[in-house]
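Field notebook, page 329. I keep forgetting to write these up properly, so this time I am using the form the group agreed on. The chain and the ligand, F7E, are recorded exactly as supplied. Prediction of the bound pose follows.
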Amino acid sequence: MSGKRALITGITGQDGAYLAQFLLGQGYEVHGLLRRSASADVIGARLKWLKIDGRIILHDGNLTDLSGLIRVMKDVQPQEVYNLAAQSFVKSSWQQPLLTGTVTGLGAVNILEAVRLANPEARFYQASSSEMFGLIQEPIQSEKTPFYPRSPYAAAKLYAHWMTVNYRESFDMHASNGILFNHESPLRGIEFVTRKITDGVARIKLGLQEKLSLGNLDAKRDWGHARDYVKAMWLMLQQEVPDDYVIATGRTASVREFCQFAFNHVGLNMEDHVVVDERFLRPAEVDILLGNAEKAKAKLGWAAETTLEELVAEMVEADLQRLTSQEHL
Ligand code: NAP
Ligand code: F7E
């Protein structure tokens, strides 16, 4: 055991599950914040999938409830706090701008306040996002690239990002932002395009569905694997000095290319199955993202390990397996 305790908000999400698995492997005692839901059967499905659900200590709490966060912070007294909780689906943020601002933006300040008031020595990680670059101001985005948010989600993340910087500078807190580019995995939520594609491809391959409806096939993203990216979060909190880092692969590909890789993996032709449906278009699009993670490489010794082809193959295989074994996620 490292003797360290970590608290993860958003532990039931994709990154929370992989980060919890990684920290357990490092000998941490891992605590997670769990928001109450009536759907008890699906709570913790990702933790179960990774077979770590019995090894995590869960605490009831919600990012919008400061007193509850202070209580958890006092009870756990973690050395490291990872704020991964958010309303994280960009498309939904136009339908729920106030909720997104409250959870994704103000929620981060609630947890910063809980740390400052109850446990100021704890090191703090904020899940910032490449979405903040939005309408890109430079062809390759680094820590120095100006932000231009294009969605209520990105605007909320930008507020949380600058509040993290502000708490670092105002209160001398060890608070760092990880500006993570898109990262995916078999544990990705089904509403995001990569998982929607790999689940759709698996269903088509198994004869359970014929067509896959998508929106903008020309959007380009710098896609990595979540398992690689949670290591970068941890590395940031092991540094003497807190700072902000871009985490990316340095390669961009379109939704169309991702689709082609996935259909090719099972020997099918995407043109026979993909249809464009305007319902999946966005009021304002982020056309292209491409990250420069040189600072993370130089200071953290971090680099992406999984190629896009490997990521696609792993996701398609996991969905095929899930559908044939009737597992749900
Ligand atoms: P995710 O799968 O959507 O997980 C979000 C987590 O937040 C879930 O555990 C969810 O709980 C929790 N949550 C939502 N509202 C909450 C609230 N009011 N109080 C407490 N918990 C709440 O997201 P992810 O992909 O793992 O991403 C992790 C973080 O990184 C997010 O902040 C996201 O915005 C950010 N990010 C993600 C990417 C990416 O490509 N994945 C890139 C950059 C930044 P339930 O299980 O109860 O819904
Ligand atoms: O969309 C296009 C869509 O929803 C990617 C979150 O983790 O990464 C994620 O945000 C692209 C967009 O992710 C469909 O228009 C086409 O251009 O998978 P996505 P996102 O919006 O990039 C960032 C870094 C985060 O921080 C977020 O939390 O794909 N697209 N057709 C589609 N997208 C979806 N969802 N569904 C489609 O049918």
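OBSERVATIONS:
- The longest helix spans residues 97-118.
- The two ends are 31 Å apart (CA to CA).
FOLLOW-UP: compare against the apo run.
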